[in-house]
């Protein structure tokens, strides 16, 4: 029985482990923290900084390694890749960790992005802001997620304050995109080069955190989004599930970020598609044939932030699916999700209002 190693042991690792089990594939996680939602369903090895013994134990117990988060030390990734196949590759991880390299990758593949400048001093920030104009967005190049590590600058007076907040990190300044919609496209590629693409997903964020995803979302730019993501997969010689988040503004597709892993906006696929993104990722890294991405109807995924709604009330809703991550409740923390599935989109949207009011 093949064992897949997963770096990280949060909710994404948890759902990967659950998807691997019916395939007869074991999983084992390597975690750098003490709270590990995946530990309920799979084995977790705790690895402290520079703990080469734990890393060696992990590598020796698996045949192939993947990730649940791109924000892992590259030196660890290099050590793992020297012994076992690692998907995504170290090179792809390096790009996905760095917003500057990410934007440069998009541009190299003729994919639209916001205008941007690397920032390494207050003077370079002032110069870039003058070039871009206000508003603009200052972001840390590394370790930013769910709206963390960024600030919207609306006038020249904001520059000093933002620099004092973020200036100790490598930064990137981006033009502000007055978008109408946020969408994501999720695709997968295996070692044989087989590619399967999920339908476009529409996303709604609040305070930088994904709240709701709807799929399939029909839009004239869907075909272009698919073409761009497929080109990225081939360019990177990528293996696994890959996600690109886009803005849509003035009927133009603008790439915002990519994620070399399963993605929050794809949780609807567990019940809403023939093959979930989690099973698809396991299939891809184990070089199994990929599954159908056909949606079963209309799905809406509602993130549970801070606390889980009452399970009895949720399960009383027809077509509702309750997923808790068994995480300690905390403000602004993703602790679970609820997916609503049905043939009638309007009925599903009405059902979601019940969840919103809980």
How would you characterize this protein structure?
The chain has 358 residues and is an alpha+beta fold. The protein folds into three domains: 84 residues, Rossmann fold; 61 residues, Dna Ligase, domain 1, CATH 3.30.1490; 176 residues, ATP-grasp fold, B domain (D-amino Acid Aminotransferase, Chain A, domain 1). It contains twelve helices and 17 strands. Strands 9, 10, 11, 12, 13, 14, 15, 16 and 17 form a nine-stranded antiparallel sheet that branches. The longest helix is centred in the middle third of the chain and has 15 residues. It starts with a strand and ends with a helix. The relative contact order is 0.12. The model has no long low-confidence stretch (mean pLDDT 95).
Secondary structure elements and pairings:
Layout: E1 3-7, H1 11-20, E2 26-31, E3 43-46, H2 52-60, E4 64-67, H3 74-81, H4 90-97, H5 99-108, E5 116-119, H6 122-132, E6 136-140, E7 150-153, H7 158-166, E8 171-175, E9 181-189, E10 195-197, E11 201-206, E12 209-215, H8 222-236, E13 240-249, E14 252-259, H9 269-272, H10 277-285, E15 298-305, H11 311-315, E16 320-324, E17 334-342, H12 345-356
Parallel strand pairs: 1-2, 1-4, 2-3
Antiparallel strand pairs: 5-8, 6-7, 6-8, 9-10, 9-11, 9-13, 11-12, 12-15, 13-14, 15-17, 16-17
Helix pairs in contact: 1-10, 4-5
């Amino acid at each position: 029985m093949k064992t897949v190693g997963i770096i990280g042991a949060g909710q994404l690792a948890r759902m990967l482990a659950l998807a691997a089990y019916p395939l007869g594939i074991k999983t084992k996680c390597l975690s750098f923290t003490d709270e590990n939602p995946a530990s309920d369903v799979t084995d977790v090895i705790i690895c402290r900084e520079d703990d080469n013994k734990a890393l060696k134990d992990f590598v020796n117990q698996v045949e192939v390694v993947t990730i649940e988060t791109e924000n892992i030390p590259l030196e660890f990734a290099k050590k793992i890749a020297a012994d076992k196949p690692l998907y995504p590759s170290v090179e792809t991880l390096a790009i996905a960790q760095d917003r500057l390299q990410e934007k440069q990758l998009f541009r190299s593949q003729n994919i639209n992005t916001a205008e941007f400048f690397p920032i390494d001093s207050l003077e370079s920030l002032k110069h870039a802001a003058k070039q871009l104009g206000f508003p603009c967005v200052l972001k840390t190049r590394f370790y930013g997620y769910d709206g963390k590590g960024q600030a919207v600058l609306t006038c020249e007076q904001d520059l000093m304050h933002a620099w004092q907040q973020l200036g100790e990190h490598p930064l990137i300044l981006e033009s502000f995109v007055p978008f109408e919609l946020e969408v994501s496209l999720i695709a997968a590629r295996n070692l044989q080069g087989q590619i399967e693409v999920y339908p476009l997903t529409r996303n709604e964020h609040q305070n930088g955190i994904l709240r709701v995803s709807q799929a399939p979302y029909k839009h004239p730019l869907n075909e272009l989004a698919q073409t761009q993501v497929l080109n990225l997969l081939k360019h990177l010689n990528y293996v696994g599930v890959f996600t690109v988040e886009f803005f849509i503004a003035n009927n133009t597709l603008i790439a915002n970020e990519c994620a070399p892993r399963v993605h929050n906006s794809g949780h609807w696929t567990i019940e809403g598609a023939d093959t979930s993104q989690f099973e698809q990722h396991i299939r891809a890294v184990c070089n199994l044939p990929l599954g159908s991405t056909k949606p079963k109807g209309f799905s809406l995924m509602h993130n549970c932030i801070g606390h889980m709604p009452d399970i009895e009330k949720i399960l009383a809703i027809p077509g509702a699916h309750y997923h808790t991550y068994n995480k300690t409740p905390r403000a602004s923390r993703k602790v679970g999700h609820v997916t609503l599935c049905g043939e009638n989109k309007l009925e599903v949207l009405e059902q979601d209002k019940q969840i919103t009011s809980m």
